[in-house]
Design brief:
alpha+beta, 11 helices, 327 residues, 12% strand, 48% helix, Cathepsin B, Chain A, 7-stranded antiparallel sheet, 2 domains
Length: 327
C-alpha cells in the first residue's frame, strides 16, 4: 500500500488517471442504482445524462413556446374580428348619411330602357281627392222641369175644402211629373180627395200641415214609387242643384208676404207651392193657389226670405226647410 501510494505520488499522471477511473466507477454505480441497467461501456454515462436532461428541459420549453404561440394567434384573431366588426358597423352607419356620388359611367341597358313594370309599381300612388275635395258639379245657369200644372181647385170650385189643399196639390203636381202621368182635371180632383183621406188617417190633420207631416203622407201614399227628403236651411244653390237633377222641390211659405196679386186679399197665412225651374234671378213655380199659377215666377230672394214651415203661434217663426221628391 505504501508502495502504491508512493508510486502514485511519484507519478502524478497515474494518480490523475486513477481518480478519473474512480469517478467514472462512482457515476456508473449511481446510474445502475437509478435505472437498474448498466451503462453503455462505449458511451460515457455522464454525457448521456447531460444530454437527456437538456432534451427534457428543451421539451418543456418547447411546449411552453407552442402554447404561447397559440395564445397569441387566438388573441390576434379575436382582435382582428373585433376590428372588422367595428369597421363594418361604422361603414354601414355612414352609408345612409353620405350622399351618393354621381358617376360618369356609361348607362346600362336597364337604365336606358327604364324601370320594369314591377319597379314602376313601387312608385308612390297618386292620392285621389276625397269627396269633400272633389269640385262641386257645375249647375246650369237655368233649368226647367216640364211639370204639368193643376191648381188646388182644379174644377174652379174655391170652397173651404179646396182653399186648404195647397200642400196636397203641390205634392200631386210633383208626383205626376215623376210618374209621367197627365190625368184629367176630374181625375185630379178625385186624387185630391183620396190623398186627403190618407192624410187624416196617418197624421189626424189635413189643414195647414207641416213639411214633416206632408212628407209622411207622401211616403205612405206613393210607397215604392216616390221617395222624399227634407233639407233644413237650404241655400239657393241647394234648390237649383235638386232641380237640375230632375227633382221637384216643395216649399212652405208665409203666403201673405210673397206678393202674389192673384190671391184673394189678404191671401193665405200659410201657403205651399212647387218649384220646377230657375234662371239667373228667379224661381219658376207651379203655384197651386191660383188658376194663373202655371210657371209663375218669383224672385229668388222673395222665396228665400219668406220660407217658413207651419207654426200655429207665428208663421214667421217657422223653420226654413224644403221637401225634395225623387224616384
Amino acid at each position: 500500500m505504501t508502495t502504491l501510494m508512493a508510486d502514485s505520488t511519484a507519478n502524478p499522471a497515474i494518480a490523475t488517471e486513477e481518480r478519473a477511473s474512480e469517478a467514472e466507477a462512482e457515476d456508473s454505480a449511481a446510474a445502475v442504482e437509478e435505472t437498474g441497467t448498466k451503462p453503455n461501456s462505449k458511451q460515457p454515462r455522464s454525457k448521456v445524462g447531460v444530454v437527456f436532461c437538456l432534451l427534457k428541459l428543451r421539451g418543456k420549453d418547447y411546449n411552453k413556446i407552442q402554447m404561447s404561440r397559440k395564445s397569441r394567434k387566438i388573441n390576434i384573431i379575436l382582435v382582428m374580428f373585433a376590428a372588422i366588426a367595428g369597421l363594418y358597423c361604422i361603414l354601414r352607419d355612414n352609408k345612409n348619411n353620405i350622399p351618393q356620388k354621381e358617376f360618369s359611367t356609361p348607362l346600362s341597358k336597364v337604365q336606358i330602357e327604364g324601370p320594369k313594370p314591377a319597379e314602376q309599381s313601387k312608385q308612390p300612388e297618386k292620392i285621389q281627392p276625397t269627396e269633400e275635395e272633389k269640385p262641386a258639379p257645375q249647375i246650369p245657369e237655368k233649368f226647367l222641369l216640364e211639370i204639368p200644372f193643376y191648381s188646388q181647385a182644379p174644377l174652379s170650385k174655391w170652397d173651404a175644402f179646396h182653399e186648404d189643399m195647397c200642400e196636397e196639390a203641390s205634392i200631386l203636381n210633383a208626383a205626376y211629373y215623376l210618374l209621367g202621368k197627365k190625368p184629367s182635371k176630374e181625375e185630379y180632383a178625385k186624387e185630391l180627395q183620396k190623398i186627403q183621406n190618407a192624410e187624416i188617417k196617418e197624421v189626424g190633420e189635413w189643414k195647414s200641415t207641416t213639411i214633416a207631416q206632408i212628407k209622411k203622407v207622401s211616403d205612405i201614399y206613393f210607397k215604392g214609387k216616390i221617395k222624399s227628403n227634407i233639407i233644413d236651411n237650404p241655400s239657393i244653390e241647394d234648390i237649383e242643384s235638386e232641380i237640375a237633377e230632375g227633382n221637384p222641390v216643395v216649399v212652405p211659405l208665409a203666403g201673405r208676404d210673397i206678393g202674389n196679386p192673384n190671391f184673394t186679399p189678404p191671401g193665405p197665412i200659410y201657403h205651399m207651392l212647387t218649384i220646377k225651374g230657375y234662371d239667373a234671378q228667379n224661381f219658376i213655380t207651379n203655384d197651386v193657389g191660383t188658376r194663373k199659377g202655371n210657371s209663375y215666377i218669383y224672385k229668388k230672394e222673395v222665396i228665400m226670405e219668406n220660407m217658413h214651415d207651419w207654426s200655429e203661434k207665428d208663421i214667421h217663426s217657422g223653420e226654413k226647410m224644403i221637401l225634395v221628391l225623387y224616384k
